[in-house]
């Protein structure tokens, strides 16, 4: 009887996808995990949610997280070596979460971008205002065969009263990745409302953990037990597991 209840409980906490394409679990290179020990703790939690493949996406942003393909690979190498030493099996690869700024334009023009599988590219806006030439840039990326994914569109407060911008961007070929944390209310009421609005419109192409730390783990784990979560997964049709 005990094992029956245990099994039921663990199943309720599974995520509705197996490939996570947005996390900050590489050690010591951004505001996510500071070291390999913390990275392993986060990976174990992701495994409990049923995630089989992790695409780590450290920040690359001018003046804050000036990562390069080399700094990211070094952190990935270190984490892979630690996983091996600890005997933990986990598929993990890396890309980046690119802040759209002048540094990003330079990386784009000099072919230094590290795409996700299938040439998707995870980009984020500034939280203060969108890049002045965002639409043109998204168009140029697509001309070069990249498939842009805007990270957490629901978190940009300046779009909340101009939701037609979401429609235009999505219609113009920009995919949307919404954070699980947003539905939980972790970033506040208006972000939560925007996340559910995007779900209602059918604009959610990918979900992501955007995992940085154990506070995020707790918020996501609690959300997975709620009716809101059950309601959400009945409405969306995501493509995470196409990135296997
Ligand atoms: Fe992120």
3D structure, described in words:
This protein is of the alpha/beta class and 244 residues long. The chain has helices spanning 2-12, 36-48, 69-86, 102-109, 134-143, 164-171, 180-183, 189-201, 214-223, 227-235, and strands at residues 19-20, 53-56, 59-60, 91-94, 97-99, 120-124, 147-151, 175-179, 206-208. The protein is globular, with a radius of gyration of 18 Å. The chain starts with a helix and ends in a 9-residue tail after the last helix. Fe (ii) ion (FE2) binds at residues 22, 24, 97, 151, 210. It is an enzyme of class 3 (hydrolase). Belongs to the metallo-dependent hydrolases superfamily. CpsB/CapC family. Its EC number is 3.1.3.48. GO terms for molecular function: manganese ion binding; protein tyrosine phosphatase activity.
């Amino acid at each position: 009887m005990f094992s029956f209840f245990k099994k039921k409980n663990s199943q309720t906490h599974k995520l509705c996808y197996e490939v996570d394409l947005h996390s900050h679990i590489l050690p010591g290179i951004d505001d996510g995990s500071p070291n390999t020990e913390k990275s392993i703790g986060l990976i174990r939690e992701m495994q409990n949610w049923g995630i089989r493949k992790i695409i780590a996406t450290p920040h690359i942003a001018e003046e804050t997280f000036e990562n390069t393909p080399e700094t990211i690979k070094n952190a990935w190498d270190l984490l892979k070596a630690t996983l091996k030493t600890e005997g933990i099996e986990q598929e993990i690869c890396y890309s980046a979460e690119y802040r759209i700024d002048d540094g990003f334009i330079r990386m784009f023009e000099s072919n230094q971008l590290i795409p996700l599988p299938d040439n998707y590219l995870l980009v984020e806006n500034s939280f203060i205002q969108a890049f002045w030439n965002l639409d043109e840039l998204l168009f140029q990326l697509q001309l070069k065969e990249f498939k842009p994914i805007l990270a957490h569109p629901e978190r940009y407060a300046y779009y909340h009263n101009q939701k037609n911008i979401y429609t235009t961007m999505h219609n113009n070929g920009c995919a949307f990745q919404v954070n699980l944390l947003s539905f939980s209310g972790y970033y506040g009421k208006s972000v939560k409302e925007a996340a559910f609005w995007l779900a209602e419109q059918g604009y959610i192409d990918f979900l992501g953990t955007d995992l940085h730390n154990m506070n995020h783990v707790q918020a996501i784990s609690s959300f997975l037990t709620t009716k809101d979560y059950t309601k959400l997964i009945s409405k969306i049709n995501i493509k995470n597991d196409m990135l296997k």
